[in-house]
Design goal:
38% of the residues lie in helices and 14% in strands. By secondary structure, it is of the alpha/beta class. A seven-stranded mixed beta sheet has the order 4-10-9-8-7-5-6, with helices on both faces. Helix 8 links the parallel strand 7 (206-211) and strand 8. The longest helix has 24 residues, at 395-418. The protein is globular, with a radius of gyration of 22 Å. The structure holds pyridoxal-5'-phosphate. Pyridoxal-5'-phosphate binds at residues 119-121, 124, 144-147, 212, 241, 243-244, 268. Residues 119-121, 124, 144-147, 212, 241, 243-244, 268 line the site of pyridoxal-5'-phosphate.
Length: 438
């Protein structure tokens, strides 16, 4: 394997930054413990150069879904640089906030007002706060992942103290006040019966129902409509989390594809191509409750986020980016299926095409997954169990990636036959992160 100063720096990082960095999904242990390059010197399009100038093609998570146009997109960066040259922060407000609000409302005609934040999790916490302020109730029912904040982790304060953390493996609720126990209750996607039962048990205490409109599975017939009805019947605010699904299946929220008219929708990640930005959009009557509580932060007013979002959304519309993401993701999923069949490696494929993933079945699944990342890295690809499509991914990249995947799967199949898999792996086996509920 090539020289890798990043792996050394990662070891140092873990001594002075608890966990090594600020995001579970970008920890080296999630990809290739001891050997992942960990740090980048430069990223452009889908090309990445590590600290030793090793060059890779990124066929993995593209900044964990934050860059659907590709890294350092020229159109977005030109707009951002102009904003920087004219001052990104000021005593006065950034007028791009208004342009962006009008744009988001035009894309989502059911919505009338907009607030901003900079990250997905904090934007979801704002949405929950608005819902609680609006309904003057406390409980929320949710499915899926929505961030790190207390309202969400409270779900892991299971009834029995010994069960702390069992609900979502790996997400420990230490530090979350036990007084929040019972305020956040999970249900499974496509199981409206579970939501119905929660609503009944809460006896009128539900302030909000939260879910991603789509993630791994298509909504089953009538599911989203049933959720909407349960929200209405219980006077609960319906919040759709579009932090990951938004702007990938269409320019705007995926809920629009299903005719869903929520009370609030939350966007982040894909809306601004790598620059921190998040939006909470909603019906005026509900959004006005933001005035009854205190929701305010200095850096929610800087100008780069809304400028980047406007340029990003404009490019999605001009270049029909969601169509490209769908076709690219579909090609990758089909390629995985074909290569797995040809080589006899047993895999399971999931996710909407722009956010595709596969897992390797069998008792050696995690070992094989780690080995896959190691062997792909040796062939010049950042590759793991997920492939997040971006506009800079072209057919030629998909082709060369699938060719390398085929080669690697053949090696792995031989290793499985010969019982030499363990010897092929140079470091420890990958860690598994949390499991999503959708
Ligand atoms: C659906 C969903 N909601 C919320 C979040 C949290 O967003 P952030 O990491 O920007 O806080 C994520 C992140 O993966 C997500 O996928």
């Amino acid at each position: 394997m090539k020289e890798n100063s990043g792996a050394d720096l990662w070891r140092k990082a873990k001594k002075i930054i608890p966990g090594g960095n600020q995001l579970l999904s970008k920890r080296s242990e999630q990809f290739l413990p001891d050997y992942w390059p960990a740090y980048y010197r430069k990223a452009k399009g889908i090309e990445v150069w590590d600290l030793d100038n090793n060059h890779y093609i990124d066929m993995s998570i593209m900044g964990i879904g934050a860059c659907p146009l590709g890294y350092a997109d020229p159109d977005v960066d030109t707009a951002v640089k102009t904003r920087i040259d004219n001052g990104s922060m000021c005593t006065l407000n950034s007028p791009e906030e208004i342009d962006l609000a009008e744009k988001l409302i035009r894309l989502h005609p059911w919505a009338e007002q907009v607030r901003y934040a900079r990250c997905g999790g904090e934007a979801m916490a704002i949405a929950v706060r608005i819902a609680r302020a609006h309904t003057k109730k406390d409980s929320v029912a949710f499915c899926g992942y929505h961030g790190w904040h207390d309202w969400y982790l409270a779900a892991n304060l299971a009834d029995d103290r010994n069960l702390d953390g069992h609900l979502l493996p790996g997400l420990a609720p230490a530090g979350v006040p036990r007084g929040l126990k019972g305020t956040s209750v999970p249900f499974q996607y496509n199981h409206e019966d579970e939501l119905e039962a929660i609503a009944e048990k809460q006896e009128g205490r539900l302030a909000a129902i939260l879910l991603e409109p789509i993630r791994d599975h298509e909504p089953s017939a009538g599911f989203l409509q049933a959720v909407q009805k349960i929200a209405k019947d219980n006077d609960a605010v319906l919040i759709v989390d579009e932090v990951s699904s938004g702007f990938r299946l269409m320019t705007g929220g995926a809920h629009m594809l299903y005719g869903l008219k929520p009370d609030i929708a939350v966007f982040a990640k894909a809306m601004s191509n790598g620059y921190p930005m998040a939006a909470i959009i909603g019906k005026e009557e509900v959004m006005q409750s933001a005035q009854d509580t205190f929701i305010s932060s200095t850096y929610w007013t800087e100008g780069i986020g809304p400028t980047a979002a406007l340029a990003t959304i404009e490019k999605y519309e001009r270049c029909n980016v969601p169509d490209h993401l769908f076709k690219t993701g579909t090609a990758v999923q089909e390629g995985w299926r074909r290569v797995a069949e040809d080589t006899g490696i047993d895999i399971e494929i999931g996710g909407i095409p722009p956010l595709s993933h596969f897992s390797i079945k069998g008792e050696n699944g995690l070992l094989v997954q780690t080995l896959y990342t190691q062997l792909m890295l040796e062939r010049g690809f950042l590759a793991g169990k997920s492939f997040y499509a971006c506009y800079a991914h072209q057919n030629k990249h998909v082709k060369s990636y699938l060719k390398a995947t085929e080669d690697v799967f053949e090696h792995i199949a031989n290793g499985l036959d010969n019982g030499t898999l363990g010897e092929m792996l140079k470091g420890p086996i990958v860690n598994t992160g949390f499991r999503r509920l959708t």
